[in-house]
Amino acid sequence: MGVSKTWKATNFLGFLWLNLLFQSVVGRFVVEKNSLRVVSPDDIKGTYDSAIGNFGIPQYGGSLPGTVVYPKGNQKGCRNFDDSGISFKSKSGAMPTFVLVDRGDCFFALKVWNAQNAGAAAVLVADDVDERLITMDTPEADGSSAKYIENITIPSALIEKSFAEKLKKAVNAGEMVNVNLDWREAVPHPDDRVEYELWTSSNDECGFKCDMLMKYVKDFKGAAQILEKGGYTQFTPHYITWYCPQAFTVSKQCKSQCINHGRYCAPDPEQDFSTGYEGKDVVIENLRQLCVFKVANETKKPWVWWDYVTDFQIRCPMKEKKYNKECADAVIKSLGLDLRKIEKCMGDPNADEDNPVLKEEQDAQVGKGTRGDVTILPTLVVNNRQYRGKLEKGAVLKAICAGFEETTEPAVCLSDDVETNECRDNNGGCWQDKAANITACKDTFRGRVCECPVVDGVQFKGDGYSSCTASGPGRCKLNNGGCWHDTRDGHTYSACVDNEEGKCSCPPGFKGDGFKSCEDVDECKDKKACQCPECSCKNTWGSYECSCSGDLLYIRDHDTCISKRAREVKSAWAAVWAILIGLAMAGGGAYLVYKYRLRSYMDSEIRAIMAQYMPLDSQNEVPNHVSDERA
């Protein structure tokens, strides 16, 4: 009796997956953990391990405090909590709610999704057996699960059974259980450069995970290239392959899935050997993308890999039957890469020998140091630690930024994509000027910081919590530099001094601290002006007015009064002296003209005439300015 083609294909796929599983068992799978610290009650206070869920958005580089709640119904979280009338939304001013649910009966991701819909800030899943912690992964997404997996935004963690029992006992006893989830050490941050790698595949027909991966690459491309061009990161792409069992290397199935005589294989994209693309097509494109990175890296432009991968996804999809060498070559040429170097790097896929590029990839799959084996696709590794959580731009950027040593983070780490939004609540406890809409609160991936800002090129200085003062040139343009100012009768007075010191000094005619107030000085009362016998003083805001009795005029510079007649006489004599001085200057000027110009001209004329009648032997003929008239 013959064996059907479908059975053979399915059986062969089973062998391949068993082989991959065997490689994983021989290697080492590392569960990425974060710290869970119990703050109260005292009898269970301490720090415990928890395994980061591979979905949702862990707060890498930060921490999250909360109060643990263990629901009385739906304790496994497999049903919608709203159906039971249960809500985990925190009241105003209260700490966020951490929901504790039991493991079992449904997917981990569904438990977290139901808790998130009911208002939970985080989910703790209690293990139901005494065992070492495992990573909660997403299920193979079908139509229903794909809808909620991509929308999970809260963090989650698996905790040991013994620890979970302690939490349940405390909650059931009516005690307030306060805990703190901490991701600050989940990613090492030794220096000012982050090394990260992405284990990916060019296959775009593997369902939800492939769609998620393609979206991530497109969304993260801009940030990745900024980090790489600035020298802040060192990125390396990787591709998972495995080898075909020796007994099947000559089989039709192995030949359709593998290259180099069964050494490097990938599963059939459609899981159907009778139609569509084959596994070896995926391996060859993966190899091409590796060589694109190597050639781009040799030209000191490794970030071009992101351009190629995104362009290939758009221009050469499997659904449009464009997933082939011709389309790939067109993308390579459009990016200005050397096609011959890339083809030389790829080698011969039909050769019965190792391909050095793919052999290096298989060796890299085995975990080293603190990093475990790569068995989940896609996998992101940051500073040799596997990332856990949703593969989404903001979440990944936060994890990468957490890998920098504090204070060395690039500007992209302070962008809107990684903000924690702590400044929305009471301005984060930082200084702010509501009138000018200026605040010292800044959201970062590690939480909010209170730092005096720079506004329109003007630096504010202070502690950031209780005070920030504008400093330097231009500071008076921003809310008057925080100094006192007032306007009356169309005149504006300001205590702001536009200099580096950033001081506030009351203007002349005022006294005060310059910040909150400047009071008008009464020069008349204080006898600082108008002290002559004939003077009368009247105080005005910011100044004073002096007047004299009768026909007298007040002279401010001498603080005295003089008669108008005397002033007129003085003015007349001043005019006379001005005329005399003018005439003297004109005479002097005329004399100089006569002496140096006219006299010189006349002397030359006289000498010319005399030379005509009394020529001297030793004297050359002097030019005559008078024309010779000859008959």
From TrEMBL:
Gene3D superfamilies: 3.50.30.30, Laminin
Primary site of residence: membrane
Alphabetical UniProt keywords: Calcium, Cytoplasmic vesicle, Disulfide bond, EGF-like domain, Glycoprotein, Golgi apparatus, Membrane, Protein transport, Repeat, Signal, Transmembrane, Transmembrane helix, Transport
GO cellular component: clathrin-coated vesicle membrane; Golgi membrane
Stretches that traverse the bilayer: 572-594
Domain of life where this protein originates: Eukaryota
First and last residue of the signal peptide: 1-27
Similarity-based family: Belongs to the VSR (BP-80) family.
Name the record gives this protein: Vacuolar-sorting receptor 3-like
Origin species: Nicotiana tabacum (Common tobacco)
Organism placement in taxonomy: Eukaryota, Viridiplantae, Streptophyta, Embryophyta, Tracheophyta
Gene name of the encoded protein: LOC107786836
